[in-house]
């Protein structure tokens, strides 16, 4: 009787262990499938995308350092203040893999925001080398920061002052494969003649050059350390070539990063949900960064009047010499949600950032 009872208990225990083992195996299988799906496949336009499934990791090595390059001009300063405000608001929310934050200031000297925003001062390019194209300082700034700074995180998000975090941002990179945003105006294939000056045929097809810029990109720090010097060199070579300079214009440095990455054999996971750009992107939804690079002009009926100053407008270039005022007027009815969200987020930041009206004026 006792033997049978013990045997029964043993069988029950064995059954329980088998069930637990099955559940554990099933969980791992599902996790592997989700993980595989997260890598994504080819979109209808032939570019690689994630399909929107984000697997959160409790591994601290997945944290990324938020880094943006900046000057000490008032125009750049007020954007950095808004950007840093929203970084702090979303950093510790569920779904975020955000680590520490650095404004890489490439003016060669500190400014009045040093105590407000974590800042690392680096030197600009030697005088005249940027030829008035100040963005060329960006790759050089990253080279210096990567060489001299103590960066704890294994990944880096390259961001810009006119970025606002609208949702907590997870690490969209996958191992040594960085994540980037596909810009509709970066077209390596259509510019193959020019691209081949810097990415020769023996390196591979021109499709190896991703349709991206350096920002936003989440990338392993070790990979960035390899790419950054090449990015500097390609940028300067492109600027020195009249045909390339004329063709690429204000996006030249973006093409340079794309080419530099390809020269190192690096392909990016292309995430359309990484960023939205009003007024063209109408909804925020599950995107992560709002990029307010374009002017938003509307008539009072809520109709876009792009290229013509609207009866209602928000354009960052209206505030070159100082910050926008607090409590901006909201857009008229009918204006897309993305534009309304932008203005509301700017208003919240300016209402809560100390000394908003007195700092950052030229």
UniProtKB/TrEMBL annotation:
InterPro entries: HPAT-like, HPAT/SRGT1-like
Keyword annotations from UniProtKB, A to Z: Glycosyltransferase, Membrane, Transferase, Transmembrane, Transmembrane helix
Residue ranges of every copy of the Hydroxyproline O-arabinosyltransferase-like domain listed in the record: 64-357
GO CC terms: membrane
Protein's membrane topology: Single-pass membrane protein
Superkingdom of origin: Eukaryota
Molecular function, one GO term: glycosyltransferase activity
Cellular compartment(s): Membrane
PANTHER family per record: HYDROXYPROLINE O-ARABINOSYLTRANSFERASE RDN1, PEPTIDYL SERINE ALPHA-GALACTOSYLTRANSFERASE
Protein name: Hydroxyproline O-arabinosyltransferase-like domain-containing protein
